[in-house]
Amino acid sequence: MISLEELNQNEKKRLSTQSIEKMKSLEDYFSLPVFQDFLSEDEKKALGDSYDYFIFEESEIVMATDEKKYSFQQKVYVSFYSENRDYLTGDQLDVITLLHNANYKFTGSDVNHLKLDNQDRYIDLVVFSFSRIIRSGC
């Protein structure tokens, strides 16, 4: 009998590899750092006064509603913090083009403009939402 760990081992490896590849593609294309899940205090210090980076977050797993073959999907959020970028809409299109494919679907984005405390500086924040298929042994 196959153990639960053995049952999902290939899928865990596939998902991990996929995330690493997506993060690397952002980092290589934009020449900006990509952090997983959140920005630690040490990472904030290393950035200094820069507000140009990505945060890559794997989030909730939900029942798939439009996939007949697979039973789960995972939400993935990519937050793009930027200051003084030439064309934010163009950057958004590039992120979508880099990450979207048949198994990693773009589902929307949300744009915000954040004012830094006690400064005349604004940071653009774009949160991209993606949904990816999870092939479960269930």
Concise account of the structure shown:
The protein has 138 residues and is an alpha+beta fold.
Descriptive overview:
With 138 residues, this protein is of the alpha+beta class. The chain contains three helices and five strands; from the N terminus they run αβαββαββ. The protein has helices at 4-30, 41-47, 88-99; strands at residues 34-36, 53-63, 72-82, 104-115, 122-134. Strands 1-2-3-5-4 form a five-stranded mixed β-sheet, covered by helices on one side. Strand 2 and strand 3 form a beta hairpin. The protein is elongated and about 60 Å long. The protein starts with a helix and ends with a strand.
The helix content, as a percent range, equals 25-40%
Order of helices and strands: HEHEEHEE
Shape: elongated
Low-confidence stretches: none
N- to C-terminal separation? 15 Å
Biggest sheet architecture: 5 strands, mixed
Beta strand %: 35-45%
